[in-house]
Amino acid sequence: EVQLVESGGGLVQPGGSLRLSCAASGFTFSSYSMNWVRQAPGKGLEWVSYISSSSSTIYYADSVKGRFTISRDNAKNSLYLQMNSLRDEDTAVYYCARDQYPPRKGMDVWGQGTTVTVSS
Amino acid sequence: SYVLTQPPSVSVAPGQTARITCGGNNIGSKSVHWYQQKPGQAPVLVVYDDSDRPSGIPERFSGSNSGNTATLTISRVEAGDEADYYCQVWDSSSDHRVVFGGGTKLTVL
Questions:
Q1: Residues of A with CB under 8 A from a CB of B
Q2: Fewer Cβ atoms within 10 Å of its own Cβ: the N or the C terminal residue of chain A?
Q3: Which residue of B has its CA nearest to A38?
């Protein structure tokens, strides 16, 4: 079964850091580009970051650029999001999502999400 | 930055046809993808590349894209189609990024 499972969410104070992980299974992880997408409570979807299959291409949303770092370990079938200098407005459910192959043809597999709460 | 505009809500009776629009500057030149999200669940891709359906998505879901408007059409609407729907494109015009529309709540009357 094709599956993505996020972990690492939790409660963190403003200015703090958190590292999210996404474990992939049931498919050849190293062949797919991946994304992080978040959803604030009661709000719509917001794309956060993209990483190509080989990590050669990385993009960030302006709202997180310079604070968040996306990475992957193809040997461990895992995707990561290092989040630093967290703000209240980063509070959201964070989803990892697989890009269809070839890339940029929609995100066809999503995890169940992990909740990040930034609050003092 | 590129902006996608969706109506906040659309209502339709069961068995009728729902049309959800997604407006953007010359969106017809981009590939549009559509997602369905039910409460408490992750999004599901229902249409990609304007009008293609992933495996397992009913033929009742279709899409079109021309000019400044893309449209998701749901035929013979069922109660189970009630959900939030989001359009999405890749904006490569300036800084590469993924853009989502604000979402449309489909209510089945």
A1: 35, 37, 44-47, 50, 59, 61-62, 95, 97, 100, 104-108, 110-113
A2: N
A3: B42
DSSP annotation of A100: P
In B, minimum Cα distance to A112 occurs at: B42
* CA distance linking residue B53 with residue B36, whole number of Å: 13
Contact A104 B103 (CB under 8 A): no
| Interface contact B2, partner A, CB < 8 A | no
As given in the structure block, the two tokens for residue A83 are 């989040």
Does the structure show a pLDDT above 80 at B39? yes
Helix, strand or coil for residue B64?
A: strand
State yes or no: pLDDT of B94 exceeds 80. no
Whether the predicted pLDDT of A80 surpasses 90: yes
For B42, the token pair is: 């992750």
Question: Mapped to the 3 state alphabet, what secondary structure does B48-59 carry?
Answer: ECCCECCCCCCC
Q: Residue B4: what pLDDT?
A: 97
Rounded to the nearest 5°, which phi and psi values hold at A29? Answer: -55, -40
Average of per-residue pLDDT values in chain A: 97
What pLDDT does B95 receive? 75
Q: Which residues of A touch B49 (CB under 8 A)?
A: 105-106
